[in-house]
């Protein structure tokens, strides 16, 4: 893994391949939805970024939620099919395809890896190691790639291409929002105050109970340990959201939250053992399940808007997955060749 380190790192730039879906989405009639759709692979961390920046009721959030839902349904079988075709037709090294399999989704990672391991059984151990490492890097570092690179690029591309490709094709109108502005919930714009802290605390307290119960039912862990873990996560969340409003320069709260979480869990830091002992008891899937329940309610509330996305959203989702997979594979293969690993 250390020997192919440069390829593992640089292949993350392949995540920008999702941007090829942006002009297609504009031609299909989408408007600012394309920023949420094409700025990332649209998994859980990307949902948080888009909702934090633009607000839950924004068109950008509708776009990322649409691709998230569509990708969850058809993403796994499609990427398995795509991997099979690419392994057969594109003369890249198997290591490159293994690295491309790690797009930040465990199910898609496994689905993309199966055809590869079946084709090259003698390399199974290496391929699984590279794919797993790549998936971890994509999940952990992809959030920063999205915030600092792909999302700003998506916004600039939208401003540049929308007048050229969007005119006459806007089946989903801009009603209710202004295209040249950033849309954030009032909760994001307002200053920090005691009332806001109380609302956050009450919301996260209730969420912590739900996740703790889910963790007990699904994974038979201690309710007390799970609840303490969620309180730790909630405190970190509140601190991060507060810093966003206190610091004059606008930095998304999700960056503060992730950096604080990283710091308090680093080995050697006084809080590390305590945090790791409890937080390790909570399964990520339990947190995601509770969050996705809320997402489902939001989709139901705006069902008419989601119905407009329809088959066009499926096309965009397939292009997003194809773009990031082929982009990562191409960069990984080139880097492996240049560094003499293949």
Question: Would you give an account of this structure?
Answer:
By secondary structure, this protein is mainly α. It has one domain. It contains 15 helices and no strands. The chain has helices at 5-10, 21-27, 33-38, 44-54, 59-89, 94-101, 106-119, 124-166, 186-189, 194-219, 223-246, 253-264, 272-279, 284-301, 303-338. Helix 4 (44-54) runs antiparallel to helix 5 and helix 6 (94-101) runs antiparallel to helix 15. The longest helix is centred in the middle third of the chain and has 43 residues, at 124-166. Residues 168-189 have low confidence and may be disordered.
Give the secondary structure arrangement, pairings included.
Elements: H1 5-10, H2 21-27, H3 33-38, H4 44-54, H5 59-89, H6 94-101, H7 106-119, H8 124-166, H9 186-189, H10 194-219, H11 223-246, H12 253-264, H13 272-279, H14 284-301, H15 303-338
């Amino acid at each position: 893994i250390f020997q192919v380190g440069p390829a593992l790192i640089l292949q993350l730039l392949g995540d920008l391949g999702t941007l090829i879906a942006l002009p297609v989405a504009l031609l299909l009639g989408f408007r600012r939805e394309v920023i949420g759709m094409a700025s990332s692979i649209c998994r859980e961390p990307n949902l948080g970024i888009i909702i934090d920046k633009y607000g839950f009721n924004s068109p950008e959030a509708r776009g990322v939620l649409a691709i998230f839902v569509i990708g969850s349904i058809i993403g796994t079988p499609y990427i398995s099919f795509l991997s099979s075709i690419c392994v057969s037709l594109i003369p890249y090294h198997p290591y490159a395809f293994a690295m491309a399999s790690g797009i930040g989704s465990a199910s898609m990672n496994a689905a993309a890896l199966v055809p590869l391991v079946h084709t090259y059984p003698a390399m199974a151990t290496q391929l699984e190691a590279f794919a797993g490492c790549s998936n971890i890097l994509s999940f952990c570092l992809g959030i920063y790639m999205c915030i600092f690179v792909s999302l700003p690029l998506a916004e600039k591309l939208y401003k540049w291409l929308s007048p050229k490709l969007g005119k006459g094709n806007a089946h989903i109108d801009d009603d209710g929002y202004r295209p040249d502005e950033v849309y954030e919930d009032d909760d994001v714009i307002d200053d920090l105050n005691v009332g806001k802290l109380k609302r956050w605390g009450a919301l996260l307290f209730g969420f912590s109970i739900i996740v703790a119960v889910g963790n007990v039912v699904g994974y038979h862990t201690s309710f007390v340990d799970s609840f303490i873990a969620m309180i730790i996560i909630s405190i970190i969340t509140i601190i991060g959201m507060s810093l966003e409003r206190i610091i004059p320069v606008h930095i998304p709260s999700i960056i503060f939250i992730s950096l604080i979480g990283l710091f308090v869990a680093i080995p050697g830091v006084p809080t590390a053992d305590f945090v790791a002992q409890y937080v390790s008891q909570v399964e990520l899937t339990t947190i995601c399940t509770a969050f996705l329940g809320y997402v489902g309610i939001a989709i139901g509330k705006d069902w008419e808007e989601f119905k407009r996305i329809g088959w066009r959203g499926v096309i965009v989702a397939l292009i997003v997955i194809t773009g990031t997979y082929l982009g990562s594979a191409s960069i990984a293969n080139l880097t492996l060749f240049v560094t003499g690993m293949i």
